[in-house]
Amino acid sequence: MHGKRTIKNITKVLAIALSAAVIIGLGALWSHYSKPQPQAQQVVANTEPVIITQPITQREQPKAQAEREFSLKEITHNEENPIYVTKNRKGENYIVFYPETQVEKIDHRIKKDLDYFEDRCKELKGDFSSVDYQALENGEGLISLVYTLSGYNEGGEVVDQDVFTRLFKQKSGKELFQHDVFKDSFFETASNKARLEITEQVKNKKEYDTQAEAFLQHTNAQSVNYDRFSFDKNGVFVYIDSNALFNVSKEVFSVHFKWEDIKEELKIDQNGKRKPKKEANALPLDVKDDGTIDPDKPMVALTFDDGPAVHTEDILKILKENEARATFFVCGNNSSAYPEILKQMVDMGCQIGNHTMYHSRLTEQSDDEMSADIEDLNDIVEQATGVRPKLIRPPYGEIDRRVRSNLSSYAFIMWNLDPQDWLYRDAKKVSKHILAEVKDGDIILAHDIHDSTAEAAKKFIPKLREKGFQLVTIDELFYYKGEAMLGGESYANME
Ligand code: ZN
């Protein structure tokens, strides 16, 4: 029933709505929505609830909407079906106002949230409930939707209120969650400011005790207390409902943080891009950011060990045909034998890492042997390509504290997806394994010394591209995922 939001349906609902109680409720809604929201900057006007009390002919000419100026073009009201009216289980009417954007992902999320609102409205106290929203844009490509869920009594007073938020990147529609946005240090700042400001706002209200346990608990520096938030042009709002703080459920508090004051406590910049972690010992990343990789889309790093070998050229060819890159962890003898393949890798934008001169267990070598094993191979690679590797893939995945500290100017690159190509030597099986398991941020292990792996690559590389995966080097994976690469650290994937 709630999927259909046609004028005809609204006519039916109008008949239902013409009960005295509801008219009072609507009157209250109207006065509620007429009030300007004090803090949040509203860039899209709400659909006037009064519209439902007008004759239907007038509703079909949405003059008010045509005159409206949207500063945010990507968000427009669904002019044909601007509202969503239905009955909850108790047989009460409720109204949901929601935006319709032109971004498929966001609209999909909004439609799903309507189902949540339907359930939530059943729980709200009062005789009538509504969901209203504000769309905020920060001018840098982030859209916040802030929904206010309200329950009203017959007299039209708000008796219950809750708030619900979503944050999206405007262009891609990618949703950003709390853990994408805030560093842990933010919650301390949020706690201090929320306590101060809410105490100030409620100082004359006797039923609000800002020394009570509930208030202190729900304003402490835990992430769970600040999971509703929005971005506007000047900074960030967090929202807390009075029910949690005072067991008086009729108000939502918003606390604003200026961008300048909290930017160091955010993981993203103003356009939602993850900021690379600034670490003193971070290794430089060799990335040519030419706009061809979309950080919001899934990506994986293919890695090939033990080569180069004759089949490596087949793999390079299939990579090239699919606008893909990989990282090759090479060994000594093979590198000496095929310097021109190393050169071809670098020319194609692929990355070369160090798999040791003699494929030896680093943990079993003396400090000097270990260094020589790495540096001798690096000399060969540098001579062939002009680039000196900074990544190590330890043979057999074996490292320990001594290896890390001896080779602390290198990053150790492990893997999280292993199709065991060296064991099965079966192109179909290997390809199937990768395609079945692959997910965003994976580092995939394979070996370019086997012809079966080169055969598998002909299958899984085009299929990964079809599935929407961008195939990037290890450095690119770190760069686009906004992670710092630290010397002496090991990494298996980048979620
Ligand atoms: Zn190996």
Structure description:
This protein is of the alpha/beta class and 495 residues long. The strands form 5 sheets. Strands 2-3-5-6-7 form a 5-stranded mixed β-sheet, sandwiched between helices. Strands 11, 12, 13, 16 and 17 form a 5-stranded parallel β-sheet that branches. A 3-stranded antiparallel β-sheet has the order 8-9-10. It starts with 6 loop residues before the first helix and ends with a strand. The N terminus is likely disordered. The site of zinc ion (ZN) has 5 residues, from loops.
Q: Which whole number gives the mean pLDDT? A: 81
- Radius of gyration from CA coordinates: 29 Å
Number of strands: 18
Whole-Å distance between the termini? Answer: 39 Å
Fill in the keyword field for this structure.
495 residues, alpha/beta, five-stranded mixed sheet, disordered N terminus, binds zinc ion
Concise overview:
The chain has 495 residues and is α/β, with parallel strands linked by helices. It is 36% helix and 19% strand. The chain has helices at 7-17, 20-34, 56-59, 63-67, 104-123, 178-181, 184-201, 213-217, 242-246, 259-262, 312-321, 332-337, 339-347, 367-385, 401-406, 421-424, 427-437, 451-466, 474-481; strands at 75-76, 83-87, 93-97, 100-101, 128-137, 142-152, 158-169, 229-231, 235-241, 252-258, 299-305, 327-330, 351-354, 391-392, 411-413, 443-447, 470-471, 490-491.
